[in-house]
Amino acid sequence: MFDTMTFTKILGAVCGSLLIFLLGGWAGEIIYHGGGGHGDEHEQAYVIEVEDSAPAEEEVEEVDFASLMAEADPGRGERVFSKCRACHKLEDGANGTGPHLYGLVGRDIGEVDGFNYSGALSEVAEVWTPENLNGFLEAPRDWAPGTSMGFAGLNSAEERANLIAYLDTIGG
């Protein structure tokens, strides 16, 4: 099938391709870096002048959570609750994947009968205060390491405050 001449042609084609690849890299080095050796022995051929300015750092406004709660809108919180609806129910005693949220604000953590909690929540706090809910809703796994809640959290402090205000109107 393969004789010596065919094998020699294939080997020659591979070696020729490698040689062209190496020569292309060498030519590119000369064109873009000015040739010569490596290091700082050559000056840059073209310098673009820019104003000397530090990169602008975004200032994050720290908003007092108490003032956010004072301005919270339960109506908007009801819309935010749509993210929770897949796992939580608002009816008293109606557990879903997560425990029911009826009367949540002010309730003891891990109090819902018939729901098997992971235990990580009760190690962090005793009562679902608005401040505890804010921390939990921001990043559940950071606030209560080991929690079985799979939700990533709500980034917006305003959304969290609105949701807490809405949950505060349910039951209790």
From TrEMBL:
Positions of the Cytochrome c domain: 72-171
Record keyword Iron present: yes
Gene3D superfamilies: Cytochrome c-like domain
Domain of life: Bacteria
Pfam families linked: Cytochrom_C
GO molecular function term, any single one: electron transfer activity
This protein's UniProt keywords: Electron transport, Heme, Iron, Metal-binding, Transport
Protein name: Cytochrome c
Species of origin: Litoreibacter roseus
